[in-house]
Inverse folding.
């Protein structure tokens, strides 16, 4: 579950697009100005993500937790773009992204159920076109067999029982 905290910046909040994607074991939160609204010159954004117990795929005995982050800022290619996007993940790493150095991570850390990220754009003429916050999760309960393994065991037992019936 994402919780969107505060946003301030030069782009009116009414034209800031916040979208969410789930891709394999990653959650992506993407923030960008609507087409024609300009680029972020000032920007401060706070969000939290919490992995909820009992919500698929985190249904017992599975224990899904966040184990890594990979944050990306996409800056304008306009000459003279400068500045930095300071991203603090708590718990987790801190990244300072800038034009030409726009990717932080992936960085792994001990499993957690919740993480808060504060992103702040500073300096010069940064021209940030979008920010993507990526959170990687995994099932930390190693005692849970994978569905494919259970299926193969079931097929093997079925085959053995059919084989024994034909002999009798």
């Amino acid at each position: 579950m994402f919780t969107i905290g505060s946003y301030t910046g030069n782009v009116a909040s009414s034209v800031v697009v916040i979208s969410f994607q789930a891709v394999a074991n990653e959650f992506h939160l993407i923030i960008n100005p609507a087409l024609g609204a300009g680029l972020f010159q000032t920007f401060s954004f706070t969000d939290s993500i919490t992995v909820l117990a009992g919500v698929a795929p985190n249904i017992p005995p599975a224990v899904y937790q966040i184990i890594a982050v990979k944050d990306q800022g996409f800056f304008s290619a306009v000459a003279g773009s400068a500045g930095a996007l300071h991203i603090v993940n708590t718990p987790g790493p801190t990244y300072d992204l800038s034009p030409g150095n726009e990717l932080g991570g992936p960085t792994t850390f001990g499993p957690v159920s919740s993480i808060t990220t504060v992103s702040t754009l500073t300096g010069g003429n940064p021209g940030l076109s979008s920010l993507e916050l990526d959170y990687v999760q995994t099932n930390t309960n190693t005692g849970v067999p994978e569905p494919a393994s259970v299926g193969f065991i079931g097929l093997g037992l079925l085959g053995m029982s059919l084989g024994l019936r034909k002999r009798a």
Notes: The chain has a mean pLDDT of 87. The CA atoms of residues 82 and 111 lie 35 Å apart. The beta strands are 2-9, 16-23, 26-33, 43-50, 64-75, 84-90, 94-97, 103-112, 114-122, 128-139. The longest helix spans residues 147-167.
